[in-house]
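Fold sample X.
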Amino acid sequence: MFEMTVSPRFYETDAFGHVNNTVITGWFETGREPLFQLFSQGNEDPASLPLILARVEVDFVAQTYYGQPVTLRAAIERIGNASFVVSQQAWQQGKLVARGKAVQVYFNHDTQASQPLPSHFREALQAHRETLPETFSPA
């Protein structure tokens, strides 16, 4: 499991004082950054990353507020032939506020086609395969 904390910024709030729903998908992408680093293999050029995002879904479970940190969690839920599913959660003050999934595809940008996940990436993903907990306990 990968875990990080973000601090909601004032400009991310809406007229009701809640964190805007569009912000959560951005936070979830930030929470997947350790996976991007795994696939970049030291190459800092984002265009060389052999992944594309094929699907993203978010369930907004509770309101998220400015002024309190949000803990993001991510884990690998499933590994397919050329893709994998990342399960994600956002927690604020011990309460689940959002959960989601992202489907990432191993992709060859030259041929513009997906390719089977190489075994070394498959093994690295397998090391992070787990079910995210439904209760909050600080890491």
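Fold sample Y, listed below.
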Amino acid sequence: MFKILRMGCNTTHDNNFSVNRLNGYQWCLLLLVKSPAVFIINGKAISTPANTLIIYDRNYPHQYRANGAEYKNDWIHFEFDSGFFNEYLTMLNTPLYISNHYYISDLIQKMANEFYSNNSYKEQTIEYLMQILLIKAKEQMEMKTFQTKQSRIHDELIKLRSEIYSNPRNNWSIALMAEKLHISCGYLQSVYKNTFFISCMSEVIESRITYAKELLIESELPVGEISNLCGYQNEVHFMRQFKKLTTLTPTEYRRLNSKLGK
């Protein structure tokens, strides 16, 4: 069971803001701090960038302050039973930089919308949203606590990857993708592969073949037209790449998988 007691989004304080609760709370506190801050953990001061998440355990000291700028955070006071949180105990009382902070902040806002609503199933909805938040935070923790250099463009990389799959017909090139992210071609290739474990141009090919499979299954379009819709100017090149990735020609793939007439 998971239960929110109080919560708020985008709460702001001036640059002199500080908290010093030596005994913490009798419940847990989640903070997504959207400004630079300093946390005192086990007597050690840790300076953190904007978009840092911390989940304080019950009765754990809360010591944190603004760091040279207006302080802003999302916050949740909550209770839980032992079965709900056991998998995530390693995340407690540890500042964690969140590269996909828009995603996490959106989850918190969705929880607030439910918490302050009269929806019939708001408790279940909030619990599922919190589970998603914890899974994403654990995923981030396993990528290491602070990865500020790479994480600065993490959201943009995700947007780029989504755009590649949404628009496989585009005339994608490394130079075009690097320009979109305002980084060098070399850095794009390095950071993309380190993030998604595939090169950016291999991703383009994957997106085109994925779309080709869909068109072959769902339509009666000629292979040449499908080739064009998937961003290929040369049908022979398309057929070679398709067979390389699937071991089948487009015609063979259609014959084995087509839904038409079934």
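Sample Y note: DSSP finds eleven helices and nine strands in the chain.
Also: Residues 145-150 have pLDDT under 50 and may be disordered.
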